[in-house]
Every structure is written in structure tokens, then in C-alpha cells.
Amino acid sequence: MCEPEQEFDRRARTREIQAEFAARGDVLGWFDALYKEAAGDNEKIPWADLEPNRYFRAFAEKTDLRGIGRSALVVGCGLGDDARYLDDLGFKVTAFDISPTAIEWARRLHADRDITFEVMDLFEPYRGWLGGFDFVLEVYTIQPLPLEMRERTIDAVASFVAPGGELVVVTRGREDDEEPDELPWPMSRRELSRFETHGLVQTFFEVMPGDDETPQPRFVAAYKR
Ligand SMILES: C[S@@+](CC[C@H](N)C(=O)[O-])C[C@H]1O[C@@H](n2cnc3c(N)ncnc32)[C@H](O)[C@@H]1O
Predict the structure, then answer these.
(1) Which ligand 1 atom is at minimum distance from the Cα of 32?
(2) How far, in Å, is the centroid of ligand 1 from the Cα of 181?
């Protein structure tokens, strides 16, 4: 009798690739390796569902978010679905990711839109981007970077917000005293409070329930500089 074909476990494979790279001291290289290995099949990538993030969408609908021609930057944009949604809302959108494969894929998916997609490392951005955007969106880019890098990562995300500008962060959440064990490493409220050391004032915070596949709660936080 034939054995049933083992179902591909994309989260297990993601953790495996991340661990292989981390063992070599490379904490960023695995993202592009994962996108490359997926070879155009978004189902192989845990976060790539070709839809805007539903928690961000709930925030945008609740707060009646509109771009009105304001500039927006999407940090770690992956396949660009949130960038496309911001374009729908009337923002002038720039989106970046460290993975050249993801950016090439995003450009193909959204070729019908006037969105600027750039290959860029969050930790080495164009100087002109610093303090350069009216609206900055970060969805799930902080949580897959090691906890030891958390403060540096938060500082880098905050650096893009223009005076008077806004930042929205969507992340898995954990209690302050909870030790996260495996990738992705959720954020605590205490960690989030670091954004407020950058002249950002929290204007919104909501805990939303996770989904069947990933039940951890999500934190959605908004800030204004
Ligand atoms: C978990 S994925 C989330 C992607 C997208 N925001 C989404 O929600 O579909 C994290 C993304 O951040 C990107 N990334 C990780 N480190 C980065 C860095 N240092 N600079 C820019 N992008 C980075 C990865 O390539 C990946 O696309």
C-alpha cells in the first residue's frame, strides 16, 4: 500500500532555513533563500497570502485611513500586497525588502500600479528616507529578526517617520514576562514602548485574536511624530 504523500510543512521548512543561516551567523540571508526556494509558489511562504494584512485592513477601516496623496513607506514589504492596499487608499507608495527575489516578484504582481519597489536593507537605507515619509507601515518584519536585534530594529523602523507623520506596526504579541521560544518571536508591550523614545506618541493600540493556523494575539499599534 502506498504511504500518503507527506504534506509540505511551510512553517517547519521556514524554521529550518532560518536555523541553517543563523548557524553560519547570517540572520538576514534566509529570507531571500526562502523566496528563491518557493520558485513563484506563494503557498510555500507562510506569510504570503496575496492579500492585504487583515489586521492592518481592520485598522484602516476603523480609522477611515486615507492617503490623500501623502507618501507612505512599507518596511519589509514581501510580495507587496500591503503596498497595493495603501495605493488603493490614495498614498504615494514606496516599498522595500531585503530580498531581491521578493522585490522582483512584487514588481511583477503589481506592474499595473505606480508603486516604487526597492531592494534595501532596513539597516542601511538611503539617507534621504530618514524622516522622509508621512506614513510608515511595518507588518511582521520585526518579529522574525532575533531578539538581540530588537532595539536596533525598532530604531530603524522609527527613523523613517517624518515630523507630523504616522507609523503603524502589526505584530504577534506576547506578555512582557513571557520568553518567546521559536521563530517568529512576538513583541511585548514593553518592547513596543521603545517607539515612544523616538518622539512618537501612541495614538492607537488594539489586541486582536490570531487565526486558526497562528493563534497568537496580534498587536496593532499606531504612533504620530
Ligand atoms: C515575515 S515577512 C513579512 C512580509 C510582509 N510584510 C507581509 O506581511 O507579507 C518579513 C519580511 O521582511 C523582510 N526583511 C527582513 N529583514 C529585512 C531587512 N533587514 N531589511 C528589509 N527587509 C527585511 C523579509 O525579506 C520578509 O519579506
Answers:
(1) 25
(2) 20
